[in-house]
Amino acid sequence: MNYLGYVTLFSTVMLSGISVFAMPIRKQNYLKLLLAFSGSFILSICFLHLIPEIYQSTENSSIGIFVLIGFFMQVILEFFSDGLEHGHIHKGNVSDHDHKHHTHALPFAMIIALYLHSFLEGMPLHEHLLLNTENSINNSLLLGIVFHNIPVSIVFMSMLLNTHMAKNKALLFLLALALMAPLGTLVGNNSFILGLISYEKLMAIVVGIFLHISTTILFEFAENHLFNFIKLITMLLGVMLALFIA
Question: What residues make up the domain containing 128?
């Protein structure tokens, strides 16, 4: 993967998380719209790009098993992360989420699960395909991860600060999150070289993860009719962008 790909993955997480210092999450009414946009975009690229291309690039009829593996891996991760991967905020605010895990206590299981989720997402970003305009599958995957990481990083940083953690320490946890996807890409590339797992199988696992996250995002929030209309428009914009990069 070229340096621009690594910088994109890293900087998206860092900049999104740092934005919380300027705009606390309680004032970010657009967060749910960001989630709706990212969810619809991720779901769209799964059906328009990722699923067709992994089936086209392999004759292995069992590739669907790895999609299911990815789906249920995400189910298991959410036992520990409490849905942080899809920007979940318990009862609509971070303080309630914090109360569930005992006020001021740092939820290490949640953090580790989120790190693992981000690591897995980055693994299929193959060195020779990422940001190559002739191969839309990894351009789609990269954009999906980027749009997904924006609201997740905001919620993650807000959760850390809400435990009254020092800002410098919170930035270190954010830095670790920012490094997870690039690190996953490096490990994934070595796995391909060593023949430990095929690119198609890794991509299928990530597709399963994406399917779980995107559907959860799109159906999780119940709001008033006006918000639902705005949410629908936002979702359609995500679909249109996925169609545009075809």
Answer: 3-13+33-244
27 domain residue, yes or no = no
| Token pair of 209 as six digits | 């993860």
Cα atoms in the Cβ-side hemisphere of radius 13 Å centred on 175: 6
Tokens 């490094």 belong to which residue?
Answer: 179
pTM (two decimals): 0.82
Is 131:5 a contact under the CB 8 Å cutoff? yes
Spell out a b/e string for 93-109, using b for 16 or more CB atoms within 10 Å of the CB, else e: ebbebbeebeeeeebee
Q: What one-character DSSP code corresponds to residue 106?
A: -
The pLDDT tens digits of the residues spanning 90-127 come to: 443 444 444 444 445 678 888 999 999 999 998 888 65
Count of alpha carbons within 13 angstroms of residue 132, beta-carbon side: 11
21 within some domain = no
Q: Which residue from 120, 126, 150 is spatially nearest to 138, judged by alpha carbons? A: 126
Compute the distance between CA of residue 21 and CA of residue 6 in angstroms, rounded to an integer. Answer: 24
Residue 23: inside a domain: no
**Residue range 103-112, pLDDT digits in tens:** 456 788 889 9
85 with 117: CB under 8 angstroms? yes
161 in a structural domain: yes
- How many domains are there within the chain? 1
